[in-house]
Write a structure and sequence with these properties.
By secondary structure, this protein is mainly alpha-helical. It is built from 9 helices and no strands. Helix 2 packs antiparallel against helix 3, helix 3 runs antiparallel to helix 4 and helix 3 runs parallel beside helix 5. The chain is globular, with a radius of gyration of 17 Å.
C-alpha cells in the first residue's frame, strides 16, 4: 500500500509537470499494485477504491496523450466498480461522480459529445446521491463543474440557447460556492471558464 501511494504521487507530480509519459508509467505501477492488493485482500473497501483511482488516473493521462480509445475501457471499468461500491457506501458518491466526469471528458475526446453530455448528467445524479448533497461542498462543486462542461459541449454542437441557459445555471452555482469559500481558486477558475 505504501509503495502504491508513492507511485501515485510520482505520477501526480509528473502529470502536473506535463510529463505525461512518465506520469503514465507511474500510474500504471500504481494500478498494478492496487490490483495486487485487491487480490491479496478481496473486499477491502479502501483497496477497492485505490483500484478505481488507479484506473482513473491511467485513463486521464491516456486521454491527455490523445489515446482516448485506450483510456475509455479503463474508465468504464472504474465507473462500474465505483458504482457498485457507492451503492453500499453512499459516502463514496463524490468519488463516483468524479470518475464519471473523467469518463465524460474521454467520451468528448472521442467525438462522442452526446454521450459526454449524458455522462455529465450521470455525474450530477451521482453527486446528488451523496449524503447531505445539498450541503456537501464537494458534491455541489461536481454539479457546477458538470453544468460548465455540458454548456461547452452544447455550444460545440451549435445548441447555443441550451448552452447559454446551462452556463448561467453553472455560473450561479459557482458564485454560491465562491461566496462560501472566497479564496478557493478552483471556484474562481471555473467562474472565469464559464
Amino acid at each position: 500500500f505504501d509503495q502504491s501511494q508513492s507511485e501515485y504521487y510520482v505520477g501526480y507530480i509528473q502529470w502536473h509537470r506535463g510529463r505525461l509519459r512518465e506520469a503514465e508509467a507511474a500510474f500504471r505501477r500504481y494500478l498494478d499494485m492496487a490490483e495486487r492488493m485487491n487480490k491479496a485482500k478481496p473486499g477491502d473497501h479502501d483497496w477497492q477504491l485505490e483500484d478505481v483511482f488507479a484506473k482513473t488516473n491511467v485513463g486521464i493521462v491516456l486521454t491527455e496523450l490523445d489515446r482516448a480509445d485506450d483510456a475509455l475501457p479503463l474508465l468504464t471499468q472504474a465507473r462500474a466498480q465505483i458504482a457498485q461500491i457507492s451503492r453500499s457506501r453512499p459516502e463514496d458518491a463524490v468519488s463516483y461522480g468524479n470518475t464519471i466526469g473523467w469518463q465524460a471528458i474521454t467520451l468528448a475526446a472521442l467525438g462522442r459529445t452526446e454521450d459526454a453530455i449524458q455522462a455529465d448528467k450521470d455525474k450530477i445524479a451521482a453527486a446528488m446521491s451523496a449524503p447531505n448533497a445539498d450541503k456537501d461542498i464537494d458534491a455541489q462543486f461536481l454539479v457546477a463543474n458538470a453544468h460548465t462542461e455540458i454548456a461547452g459541449w452544447q455550444r460545440d454542437l451549435g445548441r447555443l440557447d441550451d448552452a447559454a441557459t446551462t452556463a448561467r445555471l453553472a455560473l450561479g452555482e459557482l458564485e454560491t460556492l465562491n461566496r462560501r469559500e472566497p479564496a478557493n481558486v478552483n471556484y474562481i477558475a471555473e467562474i472565469v471558464a464559464t
